[in-house]
Write a structure and sequence with these properties.
The chain has about 70 residues and is mainly beta. The protein has a domain of about 30 residues. The protein is about 5% helix and about 45% strand. The chain contains 1 helix and 4 strands, in the order ββββα. A 4-stranded antiparallel β-sheet has the order 3-2-1-4, with no helix packed on it. A hairpin with a 5-residue loop joins strand 1 and strand 2. The longest helix is centred in the last third of the chain and has 5 residues.
């Protein structure tokens, strides 16, 4: 996706923090849907396949690998 052109969509993730063996902290990112900008007005349509347990969602542009596919 051309980052300077119009945005086509955002990936939506649920991010869960956890403590791994040895006391190290980590984050688990699970893709749960996508957000699509409205064509004629500000805002997004959000389509979710799952709901996060903690209510936290993160929306990010697709990675370079996804934009090539």
């Amino acid at each position: 996706m051309n980052r300077q052109g119009p945005m086509t969509y955002l990936n939506v993730f649920s991010v869960r923090e956890f403590e791994a063996a040895g006391g190290q902290k980590g984050k688990s990112w699970t893709k749960v849907g996508a957000a699509f900008p409205h064509k004629d007005s500000p805002g997004f349509n959000i389509e979710l396949n799952l709901l996060p347990l903690d209510g936290r969602l993160v929306a990010l542009p697709p990675s370079e690998e996804e934009s090539v596919a």
